[in-house]
Each structure stands twice: as structure tokens, then as C-alpha cells.
Specification:
The chain is an alpha/beta fold. 29% of the residues lie in helices and 14% in strands. A 10-stranded parallel beta sheet has the order 1-2-3-4-5-8-9-11-13-14. It is globular.
Length: 555
């Protein structure tokens, strides 16, 4: 293109009357501000990682008024100029990775675009759980896609009142089939629904997808083909319209698993594609700082029930930390080698996470999923992680065989099932210069009892009273003495507590588990509620299935 590629490209733009999509990712020598002076509307501009800063007035170019797709990830400068009111009115896909977007900037973004965007990539920024409040309230379409129609297969939702900390709480009510994911019709697409009260044409009604076809691609190539009318499944107009956010990437932020849980629980079932490759298990707080080693951090996602179709009705493509399947969080702690951290995660943390979160993601947890990517998988394992992944592959084979058998019988249309599984591995510690002798001592260090190493040292030094005994004494303090068997049989499983609902104190029944349980997690929960007198904020979205399964799964 000569010595000045911008001049050459400017001339090329003039001679190509149908040119409307520009993909110049990573180009060091191209400046869109110089070659995009054109009278025709540009529909797509992808310039990720281009090092040349754009002038402030660039976003006000008339040729960008009809811009549908914009990727400015990793480019110099702030996103603020792109958030001016009345600019980019047709924008539907926005990718702003590595732009140092914080909660304040994101609030301005949600105010500007509201439900106009259907795809938003916010990877590698500075967002916290607080940012999800703006996203859920402004960017997701207000219509709730979840219903009781599929109760037998998926369960249903029971909605409660609004709490100041959580919002409206939701409880999953299981059918005889839904909790075990084994309903005979779980692999069938949704049958067409007909409502005599509907007055709009069926194509204009916002309902959950039937699960049969693919979802729109939000990649630069996919959107380009769609805008040019070359997508075999979606019309060009569908890429230029929006009914709220459906594709979302939150990877590499400061958003915790609690924030993700709340987003998926209260998201009204609209998300179709979701990515968050790693997240802290809990957000930083003074409480966690007191109970947790200062240099230790756990990353992962264990709230599997939020991925079920009863909550995430349209979810088809997921990219999450591998713990959603393996139940093994990633441990980061100063002073320990990689192999030592992996050993602790598999031998000490895994048994606890299995008790607290009894459900791991399996293919039939959500048969509507077609693609699953598991991230941050370690290259080394003493066995548990390998066993979990092998079990997932076996279950995928079983699901594929069941769907194939159903299709061969010429019955109703079936779902595709989980067709794409991607495993993203961490670097091999032995290839990064770590000492093998040091790493192989991890298990010995774990069992040594050394105070400087012990990850759960308070368990030995400050042993609390047995939770189940505290529960028994608290509940039975005013009851006549009776035999242990009779006491166990009649022991209540709920605690009456005062919580703030709709700005008023209301009595609710909080599940505390049975008096006698083999699961220390259930015992500790009851101990915390009863012995410590915790009543504020006990309702956090209703009883998650994990608590009940933690006790039910005991032998």
C-alpha cells in the first residue's frame, strides 16, 4: 500500500462502494481517523490492540452513525468519548477489553446504551460485584423468560420479597424428576406455546428459545457475515436489532463468584453466551480477612444450580473456571510452590467444597448447553482432577448416545446436547523452571502439621463446640427431656428469624438442616444461625439447592 498505508487505504475506500466492514486488529501502521473519512456508513470496525490513539472527535464522525460492531480493546485512551449521549445510536456489539473500565465508567455505559447492546465484552477491566447492579437493572430486557411450563423437567421458581442486600430472592422448587436431571423428556426441544390472550404476532413475542438452533455469533467474522446477509440462520436485521444483552464476557475482573451467582439468578433467563474464566470465590472484605490467611486467595465457581435452565433459560455457550465441574478451586498463596498449592487444593479444599456444594456440573444439568469451555485447568494432578474430567467425558458420551437413540425413533425434535467441550490448561510448572524436589514435597508439607504452613490451622487450635450439640441444646432448652431417637425424629429444621423485606421487618422460616447430620457444612450452618444469633441478612436468594443436597447426599 505504499509508504503511507493510510493514504492508500483512503483511496481504496473511495473505489470500493460496498465496503462497510473494517478489521484491522493489531495493525501498527493504520489509523482509522485518517482513512475513514467517507460518506457511506461504516457497519463494523474492529481495531483491537491498535497502538495509535484516536482523536476525541473520531467517535462523532458521520460515517460512524450507523456503526453496529465496535472493538477498541487494548487501544490507548479512555472509553469516555464513546459514552456521549446520542452517539453511536445503532451500536449493538461493543468490545472494550483492557480499557481500565471501572464501576463508575460502567455505570455511564449502561446509562448510555441500556438495552441497545446485545453483546458486551468487558474482559480484563476493573469491575467489581457492584457493577453488576447496573448491568442487571439496565442492560437486560425486563421481560422474564422463565416460567412454570417445564416444571416436570426443570423444576420451577418460587419468588419471594425484596431484601436490601440481595434484591428479590428466588427459590428452586423441584419436581420428582428435576433435581436428579433424569426426566425422560429432558432432551426434547420446547414445543410451540400458544396463548389465546397473545395479540402480537408470534415472531414479535419475547419468549425463551426452543433450544434447537444455534445462537448468533458475536465475533467480528460472524457479525460481518451476518450484516452482509451471509449467515445461514439469522437475517441481517437480527444483527442490527436488540432486545437487551444476551452475550456477556466478564473475564479477568474483580467480580466474585457471589456476584456471578446473583447475576445469573436475577438475570431473567436472557443470557445466551456467558464467559468469566476466573473469579474470587468471595469478594474481599474485613470478615474474610479475619478468617482467611492474608496472602491466600481461592478462585472458582461452585454455584452450579444457576446454570440450570430453570434459572438460565436461554444459556447455550458457557466459559467458566474448571471448578464448576471438578469442584477444585484454584489456590494462590505466597510462599508455596505450584505443586504444593495443587496438592492442598485436591487433598484439603476439595473435600470441603464437595460437602458445601454437592452438585457438580454434568451435561444434563442443562441439556440446552451446546458449548462448554473449562479454564485454568492445572497440568498436574494427584488423581481427583483427572477423575472428574474423565467422568465428564463419560457422561458426555452417555448423553450423546441417548440423544442419538431418541433421534433414530423419529420422535419429537431433540436438543443437540453438549457438542463442544474445550479444556484450557495452565502452564506446566515443571516447564517453568520450578524445582522438582521442592514440588514433590508438597504432600509431606501438608501432613507435617507445621503452623506456618497449615491452611486450616484454626480447626485444631480453636476447636468450636460440636455444632449439632449446640443446635440440640438451643432448640431443646425449654422442652421436656426425652429419648434421643424421639428428639431426632421431631427436631424442627427451620429457624424463625426477623429479616428486612420491602423495608419492613418480617418473620421468615430459615432452613438450618436436621439436628443430626453427617455433613460438617450443614452442622456449621445451623451452629452459626443458632449459637451466634445471626439474623440479619440470612435470606440470600432463598435456599440454594447446594445446602439441601449437602445433607441429602450423605450416606
Amino acid at each position: 500500500m505504499g509508504r503511507n498505508p493510510n493514504n492508500s487505504l483512503r483511496e481504496a475506500v473511495k473505489t470500493l462502494p460496498n465496503l462497510s466492514c473494517f478489521l484491522i486488529d493489531g495493525r501498527q501502521d493504520l489509523n482509522p481517523a485518517e482513512f475513514m473519512h467517507t460518506e457511506r456508513h461504516v457497519l463494523l470496525l474492529s481495531m483491537a490492540d491498535c497502538p495509535i490513539p484516536l482523536p476525541t472527535k473520531f467517535v462523532s464522525y458521520e460515517c460512524l452513525r450507523g456503526l453496529v460492531y465496535l472493538d477498541i480493546s487494548g487501544t490507548p485512551g479512555s472509553v469516555r468519548p464513546f459514552l456521549q449521549r446520542d452517539l453511536l445510536p445503532e451500536l449493538r456489539v461493543l468490545k472494550i477489553r483492557h480499557k481500565e473500565v471501572d464501576d463508575a465508567a460502567f455505570e455511564a455505559l449502561t446509562t448510555q446504551f441500556e438495552t441497545r447492546l446485545w453483546s458486551l465484552d468487558l474482559g480484563s477491566n476493573k469491575l467489581t460485584d457492584h457493577a453488576l447492579e447496573f448491568l442487571g437493572a439496565r442492560c437486560l430486557y425486563p421481560t422474564d423468560l422463565r416460567s412454570d411450563v417445564h416444571f416436570d423437567v426443570e423444576g420451577k421458581l418460587e419468588f419471594g420479597r425484596v431484601t436490601p442486600d440481595y434484591g428479590g430472592w428466588i427459590r428452586v422448587v423441584e419436581s420428582p424428576w428435576s433435581g436428579s436431571f433424569d426426566h425422560p423428556e429432558r432432551h426434547l426441544v420446547d414445543a410451540p406455546s400458544y396463548d389465546p390472550h397473545d395479540t402480537l404476532p408470534q415472531e414479535d413475542q419475547l419468549k425463551r428459545l426452543d433450544g434447537r438452533g444455534p445462537i448468533q455469533s458475536d465475533s467480528a467474522d460472524g457479525v460481518c457475515r451476518g450484516l452482509l446477509g451471509e449467515d445461514p440462520y439469522f437475517a441481517s436485521a437480527s444483527f442490527q436489532s436488540s432486545q437487551g444483552l444476551t452475550h456477556l464476557n466478564l473475564s479477568d475482573n474483580q467480580i466474585s463468584s457471589l456476584g456471578i451467582r446473583k447475576l445469573l439468578t436475577l438475570g431473567r433467563g436472557h443470557l445466551q453466551q456467558f464467559s468469566c474464566d476466573s473469579m474470587p470465590l468471595v469478594p474481599p472484605s474485613k470478615a474474610t480477612a479475619r478468617a482467611w490467611p492474608r496472602t491466600a486467595k481461592l478462585y472458582g465457581y461452585l454455584y452450579v444450580h444457576t446454570l440450570r435452565p430453570v434459572l438460565s433459560s436461554n444459556l447455550r455457550v458457557v466459559r467458566l473456571h474448571h471448578s464448576v465441574v471438578t469442584q477444585i478451586p484454584t489456590l494462590e498463596i505466597d510462599g508455596l510452590s505450584t505443586m504444593a498449592r495443587l496438592c492442598i487444593a485436591e487433598t484439603s479444599i476439595l473435600p470441603r467444597s464437595e460437602k458445601a456444594f454437592a452438585q457438580a456440573l454434568v451435561p444434563d444439568t442443562n441439556p440446552r448447553l451446546t458449548s462448554l469451555t473449562l479454564t485454568r485447568i492445572p497440568r498436574r494432578s494427584s488423581g481427583p482432577l483427572i477423575s472428574k474430567l474423565i467422568n465428564l467425558l463419560k457422561l458426555l458420551s452417555i448423553q450423546e448416545r441417548i440423544i442419538s437413540d431418541a433421534q433414530s425413533r423419529r420422535g419429537p425434535c431433540t436438543l443437540a446436547g453438549l457438542r463442544h467441550l474445550r479444556l484450557e490448561f495452565e502452564p506446566d510448572p515443571f516447564e517453568e523452571g520450578f524445582s522438582m524436589a521442592e514440588d514433590l514435597d508438597a504432600e509431606e508439607l501438608l501432613n507435617s502439621g507445621d503452623k506456618g504452613f497449615s491452611f486450616f490451622e484454626d480447626e485444631v487450635q480453636q476447636q468450636p463446640p460440636r455444632p449439632s450439640s449446640v443446635i440440640g441444646r438451643t432448640l431443646n432448652s425449654s422442652l421436656p427431656i426425652q429419648s434421643e431417637d424421639e428428639s431426632v425424629r421431631h427436631e424442627p429444621e427451620y429457624l424463625s428469624a426477623d429479616v428486612s423485606l420491602d423495608e419492613q421487618l418480617t418473620k421468615v422460616q430459615v432452613w438450618i438442616g436436621p439436628k443430626v447430620s453427617d455433613n460438617s457444612v450443614v452442622d456449621t450452618r445451623g451452629y452459626t444461625l443458632l449459637s451466634l444469633g445471626i439474623s440479619h441478612g440470612v435470606v440470600h436468594g432463598g435456599d440454594a439447592p447446594d445446602y439441601r443436597n449437602a445433607d441429602a447426599d450423605q450416606p
